[in-house]
Design goal:
This protein folds into 2 domains: 229 residues, UDP-n-acetylglucosamine1-carboxyvinyl-transferase, Chain (Alpha-beta prism); 200 residues, UDP-n-acetylglucosamine1-carboxyvinyl-transferase, Chain (Alpha-beta prism), CATH 3.65.10.10. It contains 13 helices and 23 strands. The strands form 6 sheets. Strands 2-15-17-16 form a 4-stranded mixed beta sheet. The protein has a 4-stranded mixed beta sheet with strand order 4-5-3-14, with helices on one face. Helix 1 packs parallel to helix 2 and helix 10 packs parallel to helix 11. The longest helix is centred in the N-terminal third of the chain and has 12 residues.
């Protein structure tokens, strides 16, 4: 699938499921590996990124069985790793490299982490600084402070650290390291970020505390805690569902039901944005037994209108901004995205990539230093578009192609496998649906009215 061919799609009427949550799959593997016994993970995302996490733990001497593609049996060793005999390859995963740096900082031996060309261009000084303050030795082997990283840890001390940017990855790296730092570590985030690490640590019986402080939110954790081994089921990834949610939201009279997805409130900002843009949304939380709320979402499409995405909302939708930019192009009026400068240091410069691809499809776009102004409502034109090696750019513009005149070709689409194996198969079903597809029923009166 080096190229993905897309053409205008018929009206969506479907019920689907999406693969397991990527962020939670990473964390479930890491927490199970440092737990005090055997854990079974169901619903694991078998993507390239998450498989790198499994391989990394095996390199540290953790026994992991995989009896089925989405099931792992992980034999935790209480955070006591063996020195890896080779460089650990983090692939394209910034989440893995940053969280694994926190774990490697707890070990009294040298660990070398590398990644692909994209990951090796991403900033790592933001984790080097706090982990060095905790007592680890970390060397970025490239002049710009990027990977490969060489880490020697052990004998860590607790710190109080104020994040310079709102980043769940930096926060999580520090929290993982703090498990082996005697005393109280405090991480202060200026804006609320995704809280999977804290929630999942709590599920594995690691105690932490969160409180509002003048600088934002403070998360406190005492060291010398070992996660309790527990089985865990990963829900579907709302960031993967986001592509189909937008596709349905932008089609008048469409109906889409997505079952069994995670509905953590630090991840559901896309639902609030789509409601604000005019879609009808029904969100039903069915289960909170495993800390992370999960349930189903129904979307009934309509004529979307432009909106503003900025400020405290941005960390909640940071991964969804590429597809929300496409929603803006399909909406009437202007959509403005601000305070999203972090997108310039993702798998690619996502703001530049979005602007270039929307322009190629005939959309008027103004690229800002920290965002975009998108003037929607004009017909989209089919085009040959670059993925820039970025899975979210590739998938977002595959959705744009579903609304464009003539064919759209997404180049270098293999990158989609890093986060969403099976995306192309689901896309094909929407492009050529069954003659008698199931039609989910949505009661507009039950649509949630969010902010």
């Amino acid at each position: 699938m080096s190229e993905l061919l897309v053409f205008r799609a018929p009206r969506i009427e479907a019920e689907i499921r999406v693969p397991g949550d990527k962020s939670m799959s990473h964390r479930a593997v890491l927490l199970s590996a440092i737990s005090n016994g055997t854990c079974v993970i169901h619903g694991f995302l078998p993507s390239e990124d998450c498989q790198c996490t499994v391989n990394a733990m095996r390199a540290f001497g953790i026994a992991i069985d995989q009896p089925a593609e989405t099931t792992l049996v992980i034999h935790g060793q209480r955070g006591n790793f063996q020195p890896p005999n080779q460089t650990i390859d983090c692939g394209n995963s910034g989440t893995l490299m940053r969280l694994l740096s926190g774990l490697a900082a707890t070990q009294p031996f040298e660990t070398k982490l590398s990644g692909d060309a994209s990951l090796s261009s991403r900033p790592m000084r933001r984790i080097i600084e706090p982990l060095t303050q905790m007592g680890a030795s970390i060397q970025a082997t490239e002049p710009k402070g990027t990977a490969p990283l060489v880490i020697r840890g052990g004998h860590l001390r607790p710190i109080r650290y104020e994040l310079p940017v709102a980043s769940a990855q930096i926060k999580s790296a520090i929290l993982f390291a703090s498990l082996k730092a005697p005393g109280k570590t405090v991480v202060v985030e200026p804006l609320a970020t995704r809280d999977h690490t804290e929630r999942m640590m709590s599920y594995f019986l690691v105690r932490s505390q969160r409180e509002k402080v003048p600088q934002g939110f403070a998360i406190s954790l005492y060291g010398d805690q070992v996660p309790e081994s527990r089985d865990f089921t990963v829900p579907g990834d709302i960031s993967s569902a986001a592509f189909w949610l937008v596709a349905a939201a932008a089609q008048e009279d469409s109906n889409l039901l997505v079952r069994d997805i995670g509905l953590n409130q630090t991840r559901t900002g896309i639902l609030s944005v789509l409601l604000r843009m005019g879609a009808r949304v029904r969100e039903v939380i069915e289960d909170c037994d495993q800390v992370e709320p999960r349930g189903e979402v129904q979307i009934q499409g309509g004529r979307l209108r432009g909106t503003i995405i900025e400020g405290a909302e941005v960390p909640n939708v940071i991964d969804e901004i590429p597809i929300l930019a496409v929603a803006g192009a399909l909406a009437q009026g202007k959509t403005v995205i601000r305070d999203a400068k972090e997108l310039r240091v993702k798998e690619t410069d996502r703001l530049a990539a979005i602007a270039a691809n929307l322009t190629a499809m005939g959309v008027e776009v103004v690229e800002l230093d920290d965002g975009l102004e998108i003037y929607g409502g004009a017909p989209l034109l089919g085009a040959r578009l670059k993925s820039y090696g970025d899975h979210r750019i590739a998938m977002a513009f595959a959705i744009a192609g579903m609304f464009a005149d003539n064919e759209t070709v997404i180049e270098d689409a293999d990158c989609i496998a890093t986060s969403y194996p099976g995306f192309d198969e689901q896309l094909e079903k929407f492009l050529a649906p069954d003659e008698n597809p199931p039609t989910p029923v949505i009661n507009p009166a039950e649509a949630l009215e969010k902010n």
